[in-house]
Amino acid sequence: MLIIKDRNIHFIVALGVLLRLIIFALFYNHIAEYPDSSDYYILAEHIKNFSLKGYNGWRSPGYSLFLLLAGGKLRGIIVLQNLLGIIASVLWYRTLLHLKIPRKISFYITFLMITFLHVIFYESAILTESITLFFLSWVVYLLSKYSVYKFSFLKVLYLSAVLAILVIIKPFYIYLPFLIFGMWLLKGFHLKKNLGKLLLIYILPLFVYFGWSYANKLNTGYFVSTTFLGLNMAQNCVHFAEKGPKQYNWIIEPYVVYREKSIDENRDVAMSIWYAYHQGAFKYKNLSFPDLSNEFGEYAKATIYNNPRDYIKQVVFNSWLNFWEPSIFWKYDEIKPGKKLFLILWYLQKSILYFYRIIFICLIPYYIYRFVVDKKVKKDTLLFFIVFSASVLQAMVTYGSNSRYSFPLEFIMIITVTYFFVKHFSWFVVLKNKWTNKIPKHKQSNNH
């Protein structure tokens, strides 16, 4: 029987359970479903029947598999998400300790992260974010626990398996094994001695990624992880949609009409092509969704190629900046009672999140310089690049709901900023010495 002696973990678990019981029992006894939710139900039904015949390839199967694991019951998946959320908070605490952050600071930072409302409300939603957060937390925990230069065969296999689960839930994270491999390779990992071990990190994530892409190829005719890909690429063209090749006027004309309509009606401009699609603006082509999305993708590639400045402007000043916006998904009208209290709490917490995100952005030059100068990959540098790479890649691929991409990575931002403060700010070091009952080095030297 596993006995956990660290009392801080007992407090973290108890607090996590208590907060969820209070919120869901007294204020928000609601399962939040969104337009994305039905996609997971549909795929879960296909998997349950052991047949993908007729499936349109919208989603990867990870979340749908968890729906089935929960017995196909919505209450079951919500309970599972809450349990994984509590375990994730323990992983955050252990990650901070592995980075040699003092126990009390680690506990207080974890305590802060546990209380964030958007984390708990995502757990009440039929969306991938909370389960993605758990498995990403697990990956980061492993990277913080083991030195990248001392990974054994079994430990790399372990990491590869967790990465594979993360990728089958959210294919976007296929970039992670490439990032880890690249950073290790550039900074002193002995390739000849460890090539087999190093390649092992790719095997399982690539197997599930390409395996699912092949399944989509068989069902839709397109070798992609999701048939949304082309439409997502076209979203990045929204502000220069009319500059596409004339052969795509059948896309351009309704796209521009619905863009201007979105602006006039104060709707989300990033979703203009979705509005056009749902209004049947492209139906006259009589294309299936996979075929239509593929056409959108070809249009996007040609338009971006011919307008690189507009694309870069779009990526940097819209998609990338939106990534850093904290987001919360809740059915606000279902909060009974205490609507205003929750709104005030969220605004306060949002200010804290903005603080961490802004500091993280300010650290970008520092960590890029650190990576160039250091002979080895430091753990905090690796964590930084996990977030920074995600911020750039998601901005390059799509525009719209970019803040949802950042939510599962938020805890890494907080941990990285905390690490930086502890290591570089004297007032934080004073607290560190006080809380760990250590004599500051300058005082030790004066005693000799």
TrEMBL record:
The chain crosses the membrane at residues 12-31, 74-93, 105-136, 156-186, 198-215, 351-369, 381-399, 411-431. Keywords: Membrane, Transmembrane, Transmembrane helix. This is Dolichyl-phosphate-mannose-protein mannosyltransferase.
